[in-house]
Known about the structure:
Layout: H1 6-19, H2 21-33, H3 35-42, H4 45-78, H5 84-92, H6 99-109, H7 115-127, H8 129-141, H9 145-152, H10 157-168, H11 170-186, H12 189-193, H13 199-210, H14 214-237, H15 263-292, H16 299-333, H17 337-351, H18 354-367, H19 376-400, H20 404-412, H21 417-428, H22 430-445, H23 449-454, H24 462-471, H25 475-503
Amino acid sequence: MRRPLPWVAAAAVLVSLFCLLPLGFILWVGYQTGWETASAMIFRPRVGFLLANTAWLVALVVPLSALLATALAWLTERSDVPGARWWSWLAVAPLAVPAFVHSYGWISLLPGFHGLPAAVLVSVLAYFPFLYLPISAALRRLDPAIEDAASSLGLNPWQAFRRVVLPQLRLPVWGGALLVGLHLLAEYGLYVMIRFDTFTTAIVDQFQSSYSGPAANMLAGVLVACCFGLLALEAGTRGHERYARVGMGAARLLVRRPLGRWKWPCVALHVFIACLSLGVPLLTLARWLVAGGLDVWPLRYIGPAIGQTVVLALAGALLTTLCAWPMAWLSIRQPGRLQRVLEACNYLVGALPGVVIALALVSVTVRVALPLYQTVVTVLLAYAMMFLPRALVSLRTGIAQAPVELEYAARSLGHSPWRAVWRVTLRLAAPGAAAGVAMVSLGITNELTATLLLAPNGTRTLATAFWAYSSEIDYAGASPYALLMVLFSLPLTWLLYIQSKKTAGQ
Length: 506
C-alpha cells in the first residue's frame, strides 16, 4: 500500500494533539497548584458529598436503564406485542427531547420534585434509549435457531434467555451503559433544575463565582478521574468473548413468541413508559404554550436565536467534519499502531464532559491567546472537540464504502494523489460526511454547558435562551425555545432509528 499523503498525516497528528489539550491542562494546573493546596481542595467534605451523589446516580440509573431497555427491546423485537413497530419508535423518540427539557417538564408538573429520586427517574427516562438502540439492533441480528436449540435441550424460555440470549447482549449493554454513564457525569441543566448537586453543577457554580480558580480546576480533575474510572470499569468487565453465527445457510426466520395473558400488561408497560418519557415533557410544554399564548412568541428574540443556533450548528459541524477527515482517512487507508494511538486521542476527548473542555479553553485563551477569549472561534473549537467522535464514526463508514482500488485507478490515469482523493473518495464518502454533519449540528443545537461558559456576550442560541427563561422560573417564556429544540432534534432521532435498522439488515 502506498504511503499516506504527508499533509493528511500531519493534520491527523495536529488534531489528535489538540484533543489532548483539556487533559493536559488539567494535569498542568494540578502541577502548578501544588500537592498541598490541591489535596486541601480535593479531600474535603464537599467533594466527598459530590462523589457520593455521583456514585449513587451512576449505580442506580445505569442498571435501571439497562433493565428497562432490555425489556422493551425484547418485547418489540421478539414478542407478538401489538404495535411493535410503533412501540419501537416511541422507545427511541425520547432522544428528541433534550435532557434539560425532560427536567423542565417534570419540575413544571411537580414543583417539589427534587433530590436523588427525581434525578434517577428523569435520567432513566432521558437516557434509556441510548441502551435500547444497540440492544434492539443486537436482538435483530441474533439467529432465533439458537434459542430453539436451547429449548430442545430442556431449558424453559426464561432459562434460554438468561443462558443463551443475555450473554450475546453483553457488548451492546456494556457499550450503552458506558455512554449513559458518561452522559450522567457531563449533564448540567437536568440536575440544576431539580436541585441535585453533581460535579458538573459544582464546577459551573465555582467558575461563575471565582472565574476559573484552582477549585474549579481541581473539581474538573476529579470529574475526569471519574470518567476514566468508568472507561476502565467498562473495559475490564465487558469480556473478550465474541459471538457469531457460522456455517452454511441463512438464519432462520423469526417467529415471535406469544405473550398469551401477558400481552396486554406488556402493552400497558409500553404505554406507561411512553407517557412518562414523552407525555410528561410534551404535555407540559403544550400547557405552557397555551398558557402563554402569542405573547411567548416574540419574533424579535426568537428569530435571532434560531439564526445564531443555525449558524453555530452549521459552522461547528463543518469544522468538526473537516477536523475528523484526516483521521478517518488514515484509519481506513493506513491502519497501524500509530493510527490507533492517534484515533484513541480523538475518542478520548469525546469522553470528557463539556464543562471540562470549556474550562480548559477558557483558561488557555486567557493565559495564552487573550484575543480569542469569549469569541466565536473558541466556541467552535469547543464544539469540534466535543463532537469529534460523532463525525469520525460517520466519516469512517463513508470512506470504508469507497474502494481504495478506485483511487489507484485514478492515479494510474495520471491524477495526483490529492486529485484522486478529491474526485473519487470524497465523492463516494459524501453520504457519510452528510450524516456526520447532521449529527454534529443537531448535537450543537442542544448543547448548553460549553455555550454558557464560552459564548460571547449577546450570544443567544435556542438552548441558552431556554435556560435564561427557565432559570428565572418563566416556564411559559421558555416553552417556544424548548419546542424548537425538540423539532430540530426529531430528524437526528429518526436518523439514528433508521441506522439501527440498517445495521441489522432491515
